[in-house]
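INTERNAL AUDIT FORM
Audit reference: QA-55
Scope: verify that the stored structure record matches its stored sequence.
Auditor: D.O.
Record contents follow.
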Amino acid sequence: MISNLSKTYHHGGVDLPVLQGLDLTLEAGDMAAVVGASGVGKSTFLQILGTLDLPSAGSITFNGEELTMMSAARLASFRNRQIGFVFQFHHLLPEFTALENVMMPALVQRLPLAVAQRRATDILSRVGLGKRLTHRPAELSGGEQQRVALARAMVLEPSLLLADEPTGNLDRATGEAIHELFLELNRERGSTLLVVTHNPDLAALMPRKLRMVDGGRIVDETPAPAAASPERVGEVADVADVGLPSAASAADPAIPTQASALAHATPNLSEGSTSPESPGSPANSESGSTTGGRI
């Protein structure tokens, strides 16, 4: 839950308010698009929600925890475990392979090397890059690079996935494929998905549409659900007892210090070697959330 959120920048003795009194609630598993004109504060809002920046005032509660009161160290740990990021530019580290880039959040979280490698391999295969594990970013197309970035964001199965213009640098066909992949992975893993976009096609795919307006406020433009016609009421009652499959569990980007973590933890993955999991490793050594987060 976001309550009375405000952000003001100070420059040259002048206050520059960006967000003012913003309120928003996201339920676990929500999929929402944030649209609006350039300069109204969409990216600032996303950075604050992702704990990359602090608000000037207001409250952000995530699964009952108040984020604005956390220490810097605790906030960094929370961010790595609970939040995944996908940006317009992939921000992959050029000297590492696709597999190594995706492993980095897991290594920073101190997962065993074999577990991190298995998770990264699984999610890269899921996004269609199972045969590109040892390729470096320069050897991948733009769409493939963005798929690696998406895999990296979801390798720890975070509760909240944030995306800022994730297809802004891609051609239309590739962008549409990435859109569909976002939605498929979200349905499978049950994460809460918030996408900032200027793309009306991507916004139209989201069940919930939010518009940010001047003054840093959010207006919910989600269409109201259509009322059931009288003749459909009986049909609904007939199928009320039919069970539907629930979404599976919920996917953080690499930060500069992750490169050193990988360099010390990875023997030579770029040659395709695999590391056996330690025989004494407990089965519950893997971290990562299993359900979407409520904000």
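Auditor finding: record pair retrieved intact. Residues 236-257, 269-285 have pLDDT under 50 and may be disordered.
Action required: none
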